[in-house]
């Protein structure tokens, strides 16, 4: 698994490749921090724009391709999501579903761009955050690029690691797979302790912390969704979370301490 750069190219002629590596090394020395940003409900309000369509699309896919009725398909989707962190993994392992086909079919999301929203000042904060910045998402690459472009954030990151790239030895290893996270840090040429995972999903934070990464728990969009649903959940901070934020904007203050 290697992080792919925004233009999707893996390799370049050797000299340019070496130069790029030298620049990356120099950057890593100067700004030791490597920021790993989750996408959905971390950088934008996915509860509002995506999840309402994505869940039913996955259930519908299971109905058509696994042959269950709708309630059983919905239950299976939730079961695999809880067990594996991503529904796709359960469908691939237990039903022989083709991962690419599943991801493409379920992420069509018509009208997505019109529903996307984020906190405006976050862009400027991201742009000036010292260190390298990567997107690390369990979503497919085409979807992630679509979201980043529509929100005018695609130029703010040094690379994108999507579920398409999170594979080792022929198996999908999305978050929270600790070995995948360790390999990613190695590919980025930094010790795990220099990486900061900014993320709304606690399971992913726990795994990142277990291999020595720093962790920032972004709760803002999930809180908004809970409030909209009339819920008032408590948000106790687990020991493996280094810092908690409600807005990406707050990273500016945390930049030197996490
Ligand atoms: Mg998320």
Explain this structure to me?
The radius of gyration is 18 Å and the shape is globular. It is 47% helix and 11% strand. The longest helix is centred in the first third of the chain and has 17 residues, at 14-30. The protein has 258 residues and is of the alpha/beta class. The strands form two sheets. A six-stranded parallel beta sheet has the order 3-2-1-6-7-8. Strands 4-5 form a two-stranded antiparallel sheet. The protein has helices at 14-30, 46-49, 51-66, 70-84, 87-95, 99-106, 112-115, 122-127, 141-150, 178-187, 202-210, 220-228, 251-254; strands spanning 34-37, 132-136, 159-161, 167-168, 171-172, 195-199, 214-218, 243-245. Strand 6, helix 11 (202-210) and strand 7 (214-218) form a beta-alpha-beta unit. The chain has two domains: 14-44 and 118-254, 3-Layer(aba) Sandwich (Rossmann fold), CATH 3.40.50.1000; 51-108, DNA polymerase, domain 1, CATH 1.10.150.450. The structure holds magnesium ion (MG). Magnesium ion (MG) binds next to loops.
